[in-house]
Amino acid sequence: MIVADRKPMEEILAMLAPYKRVLVLACGGCVTVCVSGGEKQADLLASQLKLAAAAAGRADVQFDVDCITRQCDREFAAMLKKPLDQYDAVLSIACGVGVGFMSELAPQATVLPGLNTTSYDASTAKGVWQEYCGGCGDCLLAETGGICPIVRCSKGLTNGTCGGTKTGKCEVSKDMDCGWYLIFKKLQAAGKLELYTKVRPAKKWSKDRNGKGARRLTHKELMETEEFSK
Amino acid sequence: MTTTALNENTPVNPNEPVSRLQREFQAGHFVVSGEIGPPKGTSIEKCLHEAEEYLKHTVVAVNVTDIQTAVMRTGSMAISHMLVDRGIEPIFQMVTRDRNRLALQSDLLSAWCLGIRNVLALTGDHVAMGDHADAKPVFDLDSVGLLRAMTTLENGSDMGLDAKGNANVLEGSPKFFKGCCVTPCADEVEPQILKLQMKVAAGAQYVQTQAVYEPAAFEKFMTEIRKRGINVPVLVGIVQLKTAGMGKYMNTSVPGVKVPDWILKKLTDASKEDRQKISIDICGQLVREMKDMCQGAHLMTLGWDHCVPDIIKAAGL
Description:
Mean pLDDT of chain B: 95
Oligomer: heterodimer
Strand content of chain A: 15-25%
Shape of chain A: elongated
Number of helices of chain A: 7
Mean pLDDT of chain A: 95
Structural class of chain B: alpha/beta
CATH topology of chain B: TIM Barrel
Low-confidence stretches of chain B: 1-9
Number of domains of chain B: 1
Low-confidence stretches of chain A: none
CATH topology of the largest domain in chain A: Rossmann fold
Radius of gyration of chain A: 21 Å
Structural class of chain A: alpha/beta
Number of strands of chain B: 10
Helix content of chain A: 25-40%
Strand content of chain B: 15-25%
Largest sheet of chain A: 4 strands, parallel
Number of domains of chain A: 2
Number of strands of chain A: 9
Strand order of the largest sheet of chain B: 1-2-3-4-7-8-9-10
């Protein structure tokens, strides 16, 4: 799932300062699961914003709340209670995909991000989300015991641990596992250490988002003409 | 001198040494290398002076660090070239943190054109460890990838492809003496040994180690790598401890380094006036105890370059 975290309140207040009619738009997808951008968080955020606006002498600012199943899918846009361009600003608390797509669907609307989108995570314990995939477009997991070196190693190295590993932790933080130590232990336990010492060719970063710009997936058998994002 | 003229000097025999460092190893001599760190700023006179005064006539080659600990400073290539001009052989340290494969390969060609022959391939500390924590870390290649890149350049091509999908052909190719690093006293040494195997497979011809203070652990490490057929020369890393506090800091903060109590006690017991001498003696003793296990020592005196001649004397070299 995509994980996102709410922006600091000061940053949100500064973004919304010029506007009088604001919609806080929640998403029922990943950000509901990671308890950052669901309907409950939208209600709470709208209340906090109302109080903050009133404290700043702007009690006349109107904050509405809406939520659709997924902000990243055109078919759910029909769920919106009101068109987005009827507001001075829409504070989307979806991931960046939702913010971008809502903005594209409503060309006249000002859609602002309420969250910082961070990563593709697994929920590893109650209240804990851990990054597991870097979305690099050239998956190496078959050779690394299912542990992604691109995100679990702070340097994204593809050929084993660096010298910055200490008692299984990374030099960047003693609270962060060394990704290549995890890979070593996993391959050792599986009796596949020959995969650890395989010298890999330089990674094809052309498949990554920085390689050739925005990536796009198409299934020809399902394709119809897009109304947006041509 | 033109590039063509330089290329005419490229040795044809693959075993022909390209540097004094390589020649010394081939001759079977115990090799001592030193290290300087370029300053943060343009006042490079002090580091060049120290290299000329204390290292030129005492060590075989001098490492020039590359934006060490991710703290921005003058570059390794410029200072390495200035050492060449002064008759001092540099070991050009190169980290993969700050440049992608285009820039790394280009800088390797540039370094060769500037007379630099020894390169030490390193991954580099993460930017989070330095003074530009918001910089974008690159790590397009890692140390293994950089060694492969060097080998590729030496073979006359680069990592790219031409429009037809064939390897690009270089107009003149370099020939380096390619080094790498290892941490022999890591708490879990097996991944370090496996990585060293990969580095050697990728072209590494010598090794400079992280700081070692435990001769017994180092001996075990050397026995193990030789048993596995890793036969490249190894220079044991000696970081000069200036105070007991520095040793304690290394124990808590530097991965793969364990400063034993006897060293900490010696430094703690020393009076302020005697501390430098004790520090030199400790380095000398460590080199004496480990010199029969390896092919050289890499002295990292961290600004106390004036101690290098005395350390060599204390080591009985």
